[in-house]
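yo, ABC transporter permease is done. seq:
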Amino acid sequence: MFCKLAVRNVTRSLRDYAVYFLTLTFGVCIFYIFNSLESQWCMKMLAQSAHYIVDSILIFMDVFSVFVSVVLACLILYANTFLMKRRKRELAIYFLLGLPTGRVSLLLVLETLLIGLLALGVGILLGILLSHVLGLLTMAMFAAYPAGASFGLILSVKAMGKTVLYFGVIFLVVMLFTGVSISRARLIDLIQGGRKNEEMRERPLWQSVLTFLLGVVLLLIAYAMLLLRGFLSIDPLFFLMLALGTAGTLLFFRSLSGFLLRLVKSRKSLYYRGLNMFVLRQFNSRIHTTYVSMTVICLLLLLAIGVTACCVGLNNTIDTMTNASAPYDLTIQNYSGDVQPTDIPALLAENGFDPQKELRDSYFCALYYNDPDLSVPGQGSSDTMVALSDYNALMALQGREGLTEEALPQLRTETLVTGFSGMGAYLVVDDATAATLSVRRQIFVGNYAGDAQTTEAVLTAASESPGFYNTGSYLIATKLQIYMENMGTKILVLFMGLYLGLVFLVTAAAVLALQQLSQAADNQPRYAVLSRLGVSEGMRNQALFTQVFLSFFLPLALAVVHSIVGMTAANAVIAVVGRVDSTQSSLVTASFILVIYGAYFLATYLGSRAMLRGNS
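structure:
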């Protein structure tokens, strides 16, 4: 009987459970996606050459998952509290009919369990689908991948079990909280739960205008400090900048309680059009007490937009870093070249890696110890020298121009990039001078003739031959290794950014939706009065839509302005290696906002409309 009643209550109260169900579903979906990363193709590929990066990513995801589960638990408890407030009259009726407290608690526990199981199933299914999308996104970040790589749907049993475990604990906490709330509830409080009115105090116009101007000034000061100082200087001024930005946002929303109403009232044609007067009065009365929460929601949206946009937009930056730090496919340095010189190409050929076959071009040369007498004051100095002909040959393999003999007296110190531990300032000298110097180390560079992964497999086998490293102290670095190192960093930033960004977005949207639904419940008598006065249902729906739209998109609009300034500052910080891809990051961020924020907006509007129609 109780199971049937629980099912009936859930299906009958779908409008009340819509936001609660959305929050649970998005939470389960996000949790599953980022805990199934171990099964992603990109992680398996990274593990082949940089397993320690994969381990770091998974450790970070585990830590973030604990943080996210706490945030989602608080959010779900908040949503559950809203549902309890909405159903006070219903619960009072159960008590009046003589139903014991334990039975009422059991009924609510069954309803919570039913919603939880449904959200868990839908969330995991949605997570499986979206994890495939995330896999395609990360695949697009790789310049190359195995020809036989599989990109089908990923079903991670481990992630599924972890998701069920974490959310099972959350549901148990919610059920316990529900049971305690019911056991402490008093019948008189349940009956009169909806009779508390809010006192509305209209602020003087001068006070609202002054508050608005002060908020704008504080925001402009914070913007200027951010653009001039950037993100990197963490000092008292940095925290002052954050405080000014937060205070400016708070004052901006606080001023709306009088400023917006007075501004529209000055335009009579707009103020008296349709139900604008009613909408603005309602909005004005609510923002008077919700400006703090709107500030928090705006800042959460800023974090969601900023973190998501930056982590997605770093794509080109990481690629630029890879190309800058790895100009050759292969770099081998013999650091014992001064005491144990080796013919590196011959050594490779002896152990199964034929440079003539595996490389389309290569070069082998020596680097020399510095002669202090050759350092030119004002032109810099280095502890390593390179012959002019060798330098020009190395530049030619990079597709860059070298130096001429005539340029040496004016330009002596050059940056030579050769791979891991091979980037630095080298003093370029003419060949005759280099012949008089002592060898410091040897370097062999080359570019692959065929597939990089196949060639590196042959190289790995050669370098692991017995006695290979007995001939010298070698450091072998390849472009693919450096690429994987940078890709690991890139994926770590992407995954953590998306994880946090989506959680912030869901949190902001859910809190805002629950507030609006609560306000809609309080506004039922007012809309009933409009109906009795002859206002058509279409006009009432339009008024409701405007109210919900203002509440959702005013914080979003200011958050977008904040994020534009933040993105500009972020671009200035990373300008030395590239730029944030604003087009790609904007499209991805806009997609998340459209799907998640839009879904909450639509669910809120439809739920509020159903409430105001009086359908219980």
